Amino acid sequence: MGADRLGTAIISARHRIRYLLTILIVSRSILIGSGLACLLVGLSKFRIIGVPSASQVFLLLLISVLIGLLIVFLHPLSNLDVAKMLERRTDMKERFSSALELNAAGSDANSAFLAEQLSDSELRATEVNIKIAFPSRVPWELPVGLALTILIALLYLLPNLPYFMSPGQKQDIADVTKQGIAIIKLAKATQKTANQQKLDETKKAAEEACKLGEAMEKGKLTKKQSLIEMQKLTQKMEETQKKLASSMPQKSIEQAKTEFKRSLDQKQQEELAQQQKKDSEKKAQNSKHPENSKKPGEKSNPEEQKKESIAMKQAKQALQQMAQALADQNTQQMQQSMEKIAQQMESGQMSKPERQQLQEQLKQLANALKNSNMDASAKQLEQLAQQMSQSSGNMDPNTLQQMAQMMKNIGKGMGKGQGMSKAELDMKTMGELAEAMKNGRLAMCMGKGFGKPGSGGAGAGRGYNGSGHPAMAMKDPGNTNPRLMAMAKAEQIKAQGKAGSAKEFAKYLSKNAASAKHLPNGKIAGTRSQNGNELQISMTGDPEPTKSNAPYYQVYQTSKRAAESALNKENIPATYKKQVRDYFDSIQP
Amino acid sequence: MSEIENQSAEFIANFRRVREEISKVIVGNEPIVEGVLICLIANGHALLEGVPGLGKTLLVRTLSQALDLSFSRVQFTPDLMPADITGTNILIEGVGGQKEFKFQPGPVFAHIVLADEINRATPKTQSAMLEAMQEHGVTVAGISHRLLEPFIVLATQNPIEMEGTYPLPEAQLDRFLFKLLVKSPTFEDLCAIVDRTTGSPAEAILPVLDGPSILKMRALAREVPMSPSVREFAIKLVLGTQPDSEFAPPEVKQFVRYGSSPRGAQAVVVAAKIRALLFGRYNVAVEDIEQVAAPALRHRMILNFEGEADGISADILVEAILKRGNSDSELKIPV
């Protein structure tokens, strides 16, 4: 019973000490945390460090409080320590600690004096009032720490309250919300497409974009944060695109189509040239020897010639259709074209030179499709062309039928195969999403929002070496005074090396192009795409100097492919296309 | 009430009775009276130091009157011989005319011995007290003679250096449990002294405590338990007087040549136990150690030349050691 009284007093004292210790240490932690937060905010005001976010400040405070709690609960507090503290507070002159120590030592446990000492300490323990011994006091650190915390909170909260916001800030929030809604809309549409076509990477990217859009819509992100997040997401998408590109076949279907069409055109031109040459020679001979214009006994069967030309014409038409089908990536049309050619072949109406011509064209088609995702069909076509070449002398109906069947099978194979590989489609769809994000980001940077013009800034934007506020929109980026560029020319760092910089491109064009209309400083007209109006960006002056993150040789193929794709999509004069192609050839690693 | 409680109560009552009897004659100087009584109960000896006329001798004489014990006084002078203290064999002629040597006990053969102005005797004579103080016996002509129990030597000395004085050797000093510094009376005390000594004769002192009671009190005091942490504090305190010790504060390292011997620790602990009992406790507290530290240690520290030259007092050093000990034992819990 007696032992319990001292033990109970010590337990109560320990709880009380822990409680007071918690108040004290947590108060100190709050003071230290808020002090550090103030220091960080102060340093950021002097631009020594970046402005810490509210969540960072909150995290700092939370960590400091947690460390404080950890210190409290890890602080060793033995019974002896508690007894010593208690007897010092209650002027008990080592009664409690002696009782504990002597009891624990146990050597003189039976001595009368020890028993008396223990009973005395028990008796005294009942007289002790723990709350009086350890009065609860508010440490000075607590109000000071709380005041600093409130100060920090006000520093972060007040500017976010609409009452304290400047019109510019309000506009920024509206822009971010609008941008968020637009991103959600775009992401959902992309997500739908990705779900339909089972495009995993695009789906993931769309989901992330959707999350970002929602955060922006709810106002969780500031304009700066939104821009950074959008930039990060765009970068991520581009990296995924690169990965997908590296896993794709060396040649795209579009390239195959271009090659095939080019070879067809070339052939057509050659034929035309040959025909013209023949005609001119014939005319010359006729003028010299009119009597030889028609030799007696000479085989002249215009109807037969006409028939053969119809079969060949149809075959040629089918080949043209094939080129178009490749351009459209329409597998059904490819199959139909191959079937048409097979029918013409099977009809037996083709003459030997025509069959040779067809064989050559099929070989060209095989060459064009080589290394694309229709590589298997290309090999089959090559085999067919070889077989045609071998059996050119013996074209009985059976052989023709066999070849026609082979051709049909190739057509079927083309029909079954996807026109564009899944990865390619994935890359394309994601590219569109990334492009839209990029445009949105740019629009937001310019203060335009989504299609809405900016409200005007204090001066020229930062990218133009002006002194305007970086968060404010430029008045008229298209008409920026070129003098500003000239002023800062010497200090500006330009992109270097074979990174395809604007300077390099301009240098190339000045050497090779006839006109200087296509300098990067010129305006490029926007186009109308399937998704509606695309954003038109006016570029004036050199682009902002940036650092290349990927090695040149890694991005070369992707850039070339992108350029090729753009050239094929847009209505660009052939000479300009050639210039671009030559440029890429000249910088090939 | 338990037996220990009864014994403790009796202990306190006896102590108070003696103190009250002494206070009939001695005005003020309570710590000195208390110190002398502690020395008596602790089986130790006390050295009283003070300028002439402060009532040192009167205190001892009054104490002897209050106790039912034999008392002898030795006035130490330069020509005092050891045999004058211990006693000697003298030739005695018997009834039948035969002659024999018979030991004639000296003044040391008493319960309470007042060694007045002990530093006036030569070191040879002073040393005659060594065996008596430590062994409670004297050896004369090869024969040991036991002294009476309880036995206590109360020595007085004048602090002012004078011609013809011989400072007590360290070995001699070490045998005193306490060195008590008798201070000049305060205004009120002096008024009371004047009133008492210049008026009607003082009240007679009655013996209130006998030898066996003192021996019983001694036995009881030694039973008081001491917790390891308090004992540790006492040991660190004594070790702190030694300049080479890790527990010594900078002042001790600077000004002390030699620190306390183990007798110092014994003195501190025994005195603290008595003090604990006097305050009605059954355990020794740090406060008891602190209170007895100065009288028990001040004469056991030998200052070096720098300390002597700077006029450093041993009490300041003891204070520094206590301060250091307290800060070491203080709990680092900021509530």
What can you tell me about this protein's structure?
The complex is a heterodimer of chains A (589) and B (335). In chain A, strand 1 and strand 2 (532-533) form a beta hairpin. In chain A, strands 1-2 form a two-stranded antiparallel ribbon. Chain A is built from 21 helices and two strands. Chain A is 69% helix and 1% strand. The longest helix of chain A has 44 residues, at 2-45. Chain A has four domains: 2-159, no CATH class; 167-248 and 421-474, no CATH class; 256-281 and 306-420; 497-525 and 549-589, no CATH class. With 589 residues, chain A is mainly alpha-helical. By secondary structure, chain B is of the alpha/beta class. In chain B, helix 1 (3-23) crosses helix 2 (30-41), helix 9 (228-239) crosses helix 11 and helix 11 crosses helix 12 (286-297). Chain B folds into two domains: 1-79 and 110-223, Rossmann fold; 224-335, Helicase, Ruva Protein, domain 3 (Orthogonal Bundle), CATH 1.10.8. The A-B interface holds A 17, 20-21, 24, 75, 77, 80-81, 84-85, 93-95, 97-99, 101-102, 105, 108, 111-117, 120-121, 134 and B 2-5, 223-230, 279, 281-287, 331, 333-335.
Oligomer: heterodimer
Unreliably modeled segments of chain B: none
State which percent range the strand residues of chain A make up: under 5%
- Inertia-based shape of chain B: globular
Proportion of helical residues of chain A: 55-70%
The CATH class of the largest domain in chain B is identified as Alpha Beta
Cα Rg of chain B: 21 Å
The major pleated sheet of chain B works out as: 5 strands, parallel
